[in-house]
Specification:
GO terms for molecular function: nucleotidyltransferase activity. With about 160 residues, the chain is an alpha/beta fold. It contains 6 helices and 6 strands. Helices cover about 30% and strands about 20% of the residues.
Length: about 160
Amino acid sequence: VLAAYAIDAALGSMAQEIHIVTGHENDRLASTLGNRPVNFVHNENYRMGIGSSIHCVINTLPPDIDGVILCLADMPWVRSDHLNALISQFTGNTVCALYFERQRGHPILFPKSWFSRLMTLQGDCGAQSLLRETTETVTMIPALDDAVLRDIDHLEDFPRN
């Protein structure tokens, strides 16, 4: 299961809590990945796009949380060290994003002060759209490889062990 790569990277990181948003294959994913110590959150509105998944996870976070790292399940090359780089640079005030060769990638760490903006996302507009529009400072952290830019668009792109 493709999502296992993202989950395992998160589990190997310094992240304190891990929430996995599921959609149309909720039962299969929960049974396949359920042995991992993560919180599964079912997005009943998954057909409405990634914005609804972001709403779902923001609504499940505890009130005392400082920020959230938004990871994408279709980016299996992202590793724990990428997540740890974000966490290590996070001050609680600014967005932290990884980049490679001058291109911003994923995952991205958003402070709590951005949660209301994340809740405005609709359809297939993801969090990157908010960053393109902001004039606020974003802490840019260099990645050592292109893992933060690569995703799976076709089955043949999927890494085989």
